[in-house]
Amino acid sequence: MKDREELLKKLNEAFASCNTDFLTASVTDDVSWQIVGEKTISGKKNFEKSLDRMRLGGPVEIKVSQIIISDEKSVVEGIVEFQVEPGKKKKYAFCDIYVFAENDEQKFKELRTYVAHLKKKK
């Protein structure tokens, strides 16, 4: 379980720093990334393309608030901040559900992402 927690932390650090090499190496060839309410990205090549686009306006910071681990699934909850234009950032709450490959616990085969924009309090 401790190894899984470390991997999940590294995955979130990789998303924050746009480390596409690490992220691509951490998925199965048939990966499915469902961004709920938006789109589903299927297959490693499409996953890579999506990560390349992320480099342009990717996350600035990810703060993980909770990690829940079970045998085949893990949940990561936190806040992500994006640079939308120079000097302007937006914050989102996120919840990622990872499903790991049966034959390689260092790779995930499914990622389901829930995201909600956090508006500034007035």
Automatic annotation (TrEMBL):
Residues 10-102 form the SnoaL-like domain. Pfam families: SnoaL_2. This is Nuclear transport factor 2 family protein. It comes from Christiangramia sabulilitoris. The lineage of its organism: Bacteria, Pseudomonadati, Bacteroidota, Flavobacteriia, Flavobacteriales.
